[in-house]
Write a structure and sequence with these properties.
Length: 170
């Protein structure tokens, strides 16, 4: 009698490979970064730190704050070397219902003047009211950070922009 060759199972067993993929894919998805977050750089002032003897202390910072309300833009400066205090209100052209209604050019001119007077100052604080639109806040940040000039390119004004609670926010 002739021997029959034994049948061999030629199907691939893909179950272990599928198990491996079902475990690996969730870890790859968890490790992926879908959104890149950006943050504003800010620093806390050191309280009680005294300058060492013989070292010249820098000029005291000015307290530059831009307040955004439904009436317009407010600019207040307090402190500095002489301890001067200044408050200016830049009203909107008509109702403050859109981004372009605010006096951005006037704010930019005043900030450029302040930068000329205090060239070492880097920080500006923006205090928006609770009913201020996001686009208005972003435009205020752009105006505080740099001055757009026709010739010579943009000029850096106050690159450290901090957000603080504004009027009616607390």
């Amino acid at each position: 009698m002739a021997r029959r060759p034994m049948e061999q199972n030629t199907e691939l067993n893909l179950i272990p490979v599928m198990n491996l993929m079902s475990v690996t894919i969730p870890f790859l998805v968890m490790g992926a970064q879908f959104v890149e977050y950006s943050s504003l750089q800010g620093a806390m002032a050191r309280i009680g730190a005294r300058p060492e003897a013989g070292i010249e202390s820098p000029a005291p910072p000015i307290g530059l704050q831009v307040t955004i309300t439904a009436e317009g833009l407010g600019l207040s400066v307090s402190g500095g070397a002489a301890g001067e205090a200044e408050r200016v209100l830049l009203p909107c052209a008509g109702p403050c219902s859109s981004v372009d209604a605010y006096d951005w050019a006037g704010l930019g001119r005043r900030l450029a003047t302040l930068k000329d007077q205090h060239p070492d100052e880097l920080t500006a604080v923006i205090a928006p009211g609770e009913d201020i639109r996001y686009e208005v806040l972003i435009r205020a940040m752009e105006v505080c950070r740099e001055e757009r000039r026709a010739e010579g390119g943009p000029r850096v004004l106050f690159p450290r922009v901090l957000i603080a609670p504004g009027p009616g926010s607390l």
